[in-house]
Amino acid sequence: MRGFKRSLRYTSGMPDILLTTINARYVHAALGLRYLAANMGDLAPHTHIVEFVLGQRAFEIVEDLLALKPRIIGIGVYIWNVEECTRVVALLKRVAPHVKVIVGGPEVSYETAEQRICALADYVVTGWGDVTFPKLAREIIDGAAPASKVIAGEQPPLAQLVLPYTQYTDEDIAKRFIYVEASRGCPFKCEFCLSALDKTAWPFELDAFMAELEKLYERGARNFRFVDRTFNLKVAVSERILEFFLARMDDHLFMHFELIPDHLPEKLKQSIARFPPGALHFEIGIQTFNTEVQTRISRRQDDAQAEANIRWLREQSNALIHVDLIAGLPGEDLASFGRGFDRLHALKPHEIQVGILKRLRGAPIDRHTETHQLRYNPDPPYNVLATDCITFADMQRVSRFARYWDLIGNSGRFHQSLPLLLGATPFDNFMRFSDWLYGETHKTHEFAFERLCEFMQTHLTQVACVDVTVATAAVLTDYQASGARGRLSFMDVGVRTRDAQSATARARMRQARHVTTV
Ligand code: B12
Ligand code: SF4
Questions:
Q1: Is residue 18 a contact partner of residue 50, using CB atoms and an 8 Å limit?
Q2: Which residues pair with 287 in a beta bridge?
Q3: Mean pLDDT (whole number) for 1-24
Q4: Which of 195, 199, 231, 325, when mutated, tests ligand 2's pocket best, judged by the most ligand atoms within 8 Å of its CB?
Q5: pLDDT of residue 487
Q6: Whether the Cβ atoms of residue 364 and residue 328 lie closer than 8 Å to each other
């Protein structure tokens, strides 16, 4: 796919200023660039956004950018695109050295002296770019460019920013996630996270923000993703936003929010409980249930309250619950991580994301690198490879566990068979499956659903020693429920698809026995 250019809004000729980035996927529209574009002032008619997607080649990107004959190119650099962006800047500076390249974004906001992309670029703006990028562009155009290469982004009061939402095109609204931001920053200090460096969370002026939401809704936006680090920080604000959506509920509305797990006052619960199935998606960071590790990484969390809230959400609301855990935190071994996984799994979230600790540039977690022998991948995404508690081999096992868990646990496609696999000790049993599957295939990607079903049935019957009738019936039920109608190799063992449901029911007693013995 070539760069997708938004309808040109400059009046004549080519734009002087391009704002660009490489998004993780097409559906992710870059909100950061839209802030910059919205705050360009009199340069707005000369500014144009061009977005690319991971997988596109630096050569293609450079060709597309230069075809627009810009004088200045601003590039949004993130952990997922820094490698390709570096190649883009290197090529740009070779073939068009006269074009001024300004890089900004979280990945180039810290450790600038160590990064090749910063050395290649003409300017690096660290932190917020909303007002600093327009100023710098104006200075370059006026021939008054600053002498220093690295410029600290200003953080004006948020009320001074022009909100970016009119920058979303009709195509964005029809086809992409609409990222919105009711507050910026986070008051907490979890050391693995970049937001730990924020002094606090700053709210946008609520009436102005709500008016923008209304306009987006009127234009047809239905897929709203809030980038607020902690949506439930100020309950009155959260409630007003939820009520806005409740009043406009339809079959297509979808809202994503990040929540802190231990703060769900009654009033907020009342609003949440009124949403229909599938409308709310909550991402909740647990990260670890090990209190010693929580303290070590400065994460404050009331685990009992967090558990009670997740349980409430699952039992009393229709929200989809996605919960995050991080493996490889300083001082946490595999057994402790496994206990955390089991504790979380018992709360029945729809998805558990098993993440591997990353050393984000600038994140305070670095202070534990030596004491806990945290050995990180030197290349993005800077995932931890080994710690004093988890060997490289075990970390590799956890990475595969995470990938297979996405395919099987989080996919929601193995309702009947997954409980047979997990039994009473989900982490250990799934790890056993993961080790076995990798031994059989040496693959973590490109599994057709049919093949996964076959592997599930083989593992259940040959490794986990589940009764063949029970296992086969459960897998077949899952297969049928997906709507697939092909033939699976094990259908020949004697259990026919039409019998699957009843066999599962008959086998509940035996299942229970298995659960206590695996
Ligand atoms: C949306 C999002 C995503 C989307 C992708 C979005 C996209 N465009 O493709 C998805 C969900 C895929 C994603 C995934 C990940 N993400 Co993410 N994500 C975000 C999130 C929630 C919102 C980004 C946003 O729009 N922010 C709002 C805007 C206003 O802020 P901004 O983007 O930082 O832009 C400002 C400045 O950076 C700067 N700026 C930006 N561009 C430019 C350009 C120029 C020229 C200049 C001068 C300035 C400038 O000015 C802007 C306005 O002030 C942020 C957290 C957050 N709230 O910011 C994390 C965040 C960006 N993600 C992060 C991480 C770590 C990840 C993952 C690695 C998480 C994981 N799974 O472990 C993955 C990696 C994905 C991959 N494929 O490898 C980190 C980034 C660290 C880094 N160094 O880049 C963040 C900051 C979260 C955090 N607090 O740690 N993510
Ligand atoms: S992990 Fe969440 S709560 Fe902790 S600092 Fe980051 S955004 Fe804030």
A1: yes
A2: 325
A3: 68
A4: 195
A5: 87
A6: no
Task: Return the number of other C-beta atoms located less than 10 Å from residue 330's C-beta.
Answer: 22
Residue pair 151/126 in contact (Cβ under 8 Å)? The answer is yes
Atom index in ligand 2 nearest the CA of residue 258 equals: 2
Nearest residue (by CA) to ligand 2, atom 2, is 229
CB 324 within 8 A of CB 349: no
Q: From the CB of 286, is ligand 2 less than 6 Å away? A: no
Whole-angstrom Cα Rg for the chain = 25
Distance set, CA 334 to CA 188, 357, 389, 399, 450 (Å): 26, 13, 8, 12, 31
101 touches 95 (CB < 8 A):
no
Q: Which CA distances in Å does 151 have to 40, 100, 107, 112, 148?
A: 17, 15, 15, 11, 7
pTM, rounded to two decimals: 0.94
Q: 75 CB under 6 A from ligand 1?
A: yes
Q: Pick the residue with more confidence: 233 or 9?
A: 233
Residue 303 CB burial class (10 angstroms; 0-12, 13-18, ≥19): middle
Q: What is the separation, in whole angstroms, between the first and last Cα of the chain?
A: 48
Question: Which atom of ligand 1 lies nearest, measured to the CA of 30?
Answer: 8
Q: Residue 3's pLDDT is what?
A: 53
Q: How far apart are CA 492 and CA 9, in angstroms?
A: 63
Write the pLDDT tens digit of every residue in 327-348.
999 999 999 999 999 999 999 9
Q: Is 87 exposed, middle or buried (0-12, 13-18, 19+ CB in 10 A)?
A: middle
Check if 62 has its Cβ closer than 6 Å to any atom of ligand 1. Answer: no
Torsion of CA 290, 295, 299, 302, to 10 degrees: 60
State the Cα–Cα distance between residues 490 and 472, nearest whole angstrom: 8
Spatial separation of the C-alpha atoms in residues 56 and 50, rounded to whole Å: 13
Q: Name the residue with tokens 């249930």.
A: 289
How many CA atoms lie less than 13 Å away from 190 in the CB half-sphere? Answer: 24
Q: Ligand 2 test: best mutation among 181, 184, 188, 282, most atoms within 8 Å of CB?
A: 188
